[in-house]
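Quick entry between incubations.
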Amino acid sequence: MAAGDGVATSSFQFDAIGTSWEIDTPAPLPAETGAEVVDLVERFDSIYSRFRHDSIVTRIANADDGGRFSFPSDAGPIFDLYDRLHDATDGAVDPLVGRDLELLGYDRDYTLVPDDGAITLMSTQRPVWHRDVQREVNSITTQRPLVIDIGAVGKGRLVDLVADLLAAKGLRDFVVDGSGDILHRGDAALHVGLEHPLDPDMVIGVANLTNGSLCASASNRRAWGDGLHHMLDGRTGRPTTEVIATWAIAADTATTDGLATALFFGSCSRLMTLFDFSFVRMFADGRVEVSDNFDGEVFT
Amino acid sequence: MQHQTRNLLLASALTFTFAGAAEAQSARSARFADGVYTATGEYGGQPSHITVKATLKDGIVTAVSVTPHAYVPRSLELQRAFAAAVPKVVVGKRIDQIRVGKLAGSSGTPKGFNDAIRQIRAQAARG
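Done. Structure below.
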């Protein structure tokens, strides 16, 4: 077995929520376990996806006068995390950027063309997570149509749920990789290459991951036009420009996922005091910032 | 300049997908015929669509576009204009020079994108 591969020899792959998933285990995953994983992911998507007509998120977006909407109990931790990230970034991380993403063209139909008139209108009445949404644990109350996008933590949370399912099956050594949201369990470290955001044949470093999660985010990962990508500042509704790629490492994948997004916005010192994590991030001019506690190597 | 930036970003994703076909660099030009290829990729259960047009020359993507075109003026200078104190410029290493169990970064393009590119690759291979 090659160093850095962890202990994986078998790989279970599937496509879900618009991306590729891979679960690496020492022995092949039983077929029924694989089916349960796929089912878990599908159920999650049916609740939260703003791309689906049947999701709660879509119902909220279509409620002209708002209303009270109950999510499954699992939503509580997701919204708790959003509260923390929203506060820690002074509002830059905001699940209500869903509407901004749509107006910029990243919508259900992949319009990919910005609606300039609506964007101007939106800027005068921008909804704010802590003001326009009242929440009691896993229920939220709205006053008008709001588009919730849990993209900053949703996939990470789903990776955690998949890992919980595998652990409940008695698995101890495995890797769950939801296309950049990676969770590792086991004693043998997994070496993760940090892909260069501007050159897919290069890596800018390697992270050592043991019993933790690593999430990567890059602004060009879902770019559909000049300066148009999915990493939006909740305060302006506009794509960010300074940071072009981030990698965060923390104990659970939901938090790590959210931090990988939060690292796109401003100084990291406040995040470092509020969350226990390490990180690497790269700026548009090619410079990188590496936290002191980062376990790995960055090629500078 | 603005056009170049956009194409660079998109081409990054595409180049990786083509490279992911596991052919050696030298074999690519023999396998893919020159030309302009268009394909529409599907995503999700709706389904949603995205159309990608790619121009191939000697097995390399020389131009690419997503239809319909999105275009908003934005200068590269603006992207570079920031004042954060950051220590070092990254150098990077080629992926084949290092040994890792996983990669994490920008290659995980959405399915619709990948689906369209897969079709383009098939068209080019036939040509």
